[in-house]
Amino acid sequence: MFEQVRREAALLAELDLTLAWTLETHVHADHVTGGDLLRQRLGSRVAISEASGAVGADRLLRHGDRVRFGARHLEARATPGHTAGCLTYVLDDRSMAFTGDCLLIRGSGRTDFQEGDPRRLYRSVHAQIFMLPETCLLYPGYDYRGLTASSVAEERRYNARLGGSIAEDDYVGYMRNLKLPHPKLLAVAAPANQQCGKPATLPTDEPHWAPLRFTFAGIWEIGPQWLEENAVVGGSN
Ligand SMILES: [Fe+2]
Prior knowledge:
The chain is built from seven helices and 13 strands. It has helices at about 5-15, 35-40, 120-130, 150-160, 170-175, 185-195, 225-230, and strands spanning about 20-25, 45-50, 60, 65-70, 70-80, 85-90, 95-100, 105, 105-110, 135-140, 150, 210-215, 220. The strands form four sheets. Strands 4-5-6-7-10-11 form a six-stranded mixed β-sheet. Strands 1-2-3 form a three-stranded parallel β-sheet. It has a two-stranded antiparallel sheet with strand order 8-9. Strand 5 (about 70-80) and strand 6 (about 85-90) form a beta hairpin.
C-alpha cells in the first residue's frame, strides 16, 4: 500500500534484501498501490496483467508468463472474475500461491464492479487454484479478520462460497444478491492504480533535520556518532 512504503522499505533494509519486483494482482479499488513509490525509492519494477489495461508498468503479464528472481520464478495465472485483469502468482514448486482478491480465506472477492463476473471467478478458482496441490499455501490480498494464510486443502473444504459441493449456479446467485456498498476510495484508488499507483504529488513529511533512519518497528533513529558530533554541549553552570 502507498501509505506503507516507508515501512516496507525499512524492513527490506533491515533484512538486507533487494526488492526486484512489485507484482500487482489487479487494479485495486480500495487502496492505492505502493508499486510506483517503491520503484522511485528502491529501483524495483512493477508488473501487472495486460488485461488490466493499466499503464506505466515495467512489464505486462499474460497467463503462463514467468517472473524470475534469482534462480526462482513465479508463474502468472489469469484468474479473472473479481476484475477482468486479476492474476494469481504461483511459486515455481507450487508450494505457495498469491491469490489477490480472487480467492480470500473462506471467501472470495466481490464481483459487482470493475468488470467483475461471478461465473468467471468460480471457474478461475476451480481451474487455477483448487487444482494446485492440497498443501499449497494460499496468501490472499487481504483479510478483514487479520488472517494471513490458508491452504488449498482448507479452502477446498471450508470456503463458504466456493468450497465443498457448492455449484457454479449457487455461487453466481449468491454473489448477484450480495448488494454490498460501493468502496469509499474507488474514485481515488482505481484511477491511481490504473497508473501503477503514480501519485499526483510525492509525500513531503520526511524529516530532514538530521540523517534519520526509519525502522520497521516504526521509530525514527539517529546514529550515535552524528549525535556526538552535533550535540550542543551544556553550559558551564
Ligand atoms: Fe480488489
